[in-house]
Structure formats: structure tokens, C-alpha cells
Amino acid sequence: MDAEGLVRGLRSEGMRVTAARRAICAVLAAGHGEHLDATEIRRRAEQGSAINIDQSTIYRTIDVLERLGVLHHVHLGHGPAIVHLSAEINHQHLVCEHCGKTVDIPVDEVTEAFETLALRHSFASVHGSHFAIVGTCHECATS
Amino acid sequence: MDAEGLVRGLRSEGMRVTAARRAICAVLAAGHGEHLDATEIRRRAEQGSAINIDQSTIYRTIDVLERLGVLHHVHLGHGPAIVHLSAEINHQHLVCEHCGKTVDIPVDEVTEAFETLALRHSFASVHGSHFAIVGTCHECATS
DNA sequence: CTCGATGCAAAGGTTTTGCACCAGG
DNA sequence: CCTGGTGCAAAACCTTTGCATCGAG
Hey, what domains does chain A have and what are their CATH numbers? Predict the structure, then answer.
């Protein structure tokens, strides 16, 4: 989804389209596949729009977009959460617990396992994308 | 592992066995399968030992036990981390993102999938137990 | 006696909230 | 206009750290 799509989503829900929100949407739309946290989103949004945007506005806007269903936040480790456009959550995150290296995994490598889990434990669905899957990468294991 | 086992582990590594640590180990050993966070550990440890234990001591002791490899902390959601004795981490956690309901899943339901992931993405190992797996439970889906 | 562990207090890092003002529709 | 969004400041929340003192070995 491009920035205009996000903006249209806001407007269609009766929410106001402000300069800050426009800047944030532009950053999100431009950050294809990147792992942006709130601080980085703010940095880029301020730079791209030349206006001052408070960190709380970033969080509030993320919150709104999440409620619209077009955005999700993901925890890769102990640091700040990163966000993904819903359209781009077609992958899981595999993270090395020692060095933090992150690998994007196509969903279809895990959907079968997750569907089995859902079935066995009476869950309607299991997507598992809110948290990373943790392991140890090759380099960290051999050093 | 019982409380004495934990205490012995400390001593064998040259670490000191104090009243606070004894109380914390007793709580951990007694909390079979429970999801204890630092605050609850403190509450029980103080109650069980009738001494004053600071929250930082809880965290420092968790840290020590984690370094000894007998304990791990796990994130089930946005709240505080919970801890598990290593001997009891034979399961994954499946959590409903709406109501927080948590189901313990035997590891063997996911090991195969995780081994495949490790193989494909050059990870030495994938245990995935540091974070919960998120989904939507039946009740939340139908309401 | 010595060094590790503790309590206390303060800070750190991320996220949330209260409030008065501003601006989109 | 009028309600919702914003910046600012402060708090909330979990966790970590500095420091003087205490106590295990």
C-alpha cells in the first residue's frame, strides 16, 4: 500500500488527515521491508516534512493505523517494537538471540505448523507474527 | 529441579547463598508450571521468608540463574516477562492476542517445523521459546 | 578479612496519558 | 464551529545501575 492508500484509509474512517499523519504515512509507505521503530519513523517523518512531530504523535498514529488494520507492530527482541504494513506481513521473523541477526521467513514455511497448532489447541487462528522466533545463528554457534 | 538443586547450582559456581537467594529459589521451585513475573516472585519470596527483598535483587538473581542456565525468561505479551526453570521449558506458549489466554504446547508439536526453519536459514538451532506464539482463541473469534 | 550480594534510590528506555491549544472538515 | 489531533510535559511501566553497607565463606 502506498502513502495515498494509507491516507485514504484514514479519511474513509472519518479521521483527520494532518501534516504529521501524512508525513508518517509517507515514511511507512517508503520503508518497504525495513524494520522501523518509533524513533526512526519520527526522524524520517520530520526530515521528510520539515515540521516538528512529537514522539507521542508517532505512537498515537501507529495506534490509529493499527486499529484500521493496515499496520502491525512486531517485537524482535528487548528493544523498541518495529512496525510493518499489513500488506507486507507475509513473513515471520527469525532472530538470533546472541547477535540479533534477523531473517525474514516466508509465511508458507510456517503456516502448516501453525494451522496444526490452532487445530489442536482450539484456536481460531495462529499467525505468530507479533513476536519473532528465536534461535542461534550459525556464526554465533561456532564462535 | 527443587530449591536445593538451584541453591547447589549457585554454590558450585562459587556464588554466595544468601537468605534472599534461598527464598527466591524456593519460590521458583514451588511454582511448578506457573507463570511468575518478578513482582510475584518478590511477593512470594518475602512472604515465605519474612525478610525484605528488593525488586532489584529479584532481577539480579534471575540474571544469575539465567547465566547458570537453570532459568529462562519468556515474554508472553506486553507485560512483564515471566520465568521458567530450564527443566520445565519443554513447551512453547500459545497466547490469544485478545484475551491473553495462554496454552502450553508440548515442544514436539513444533520441533519439526523449527528444525526445518533452522536448516533453511542457516541457523544452528531454533527453539523459539523466548517469545510466545500469538493467535486468536476460539472464544475471542466468535464474539 | 575480602569480595560478592543487598537495599535504597535514582536513572534508563519505551510507551502512555493529561491538558491546553490548534486546525481539519 | 466543533471535535479530534497536536505538542509539551509528566507519568507509567518494567528493568538496570551506582553506591555504601552488610555478610557469606
Answer: 3-73 (1.10.10.10), 91-141 (3.30.1490.190)
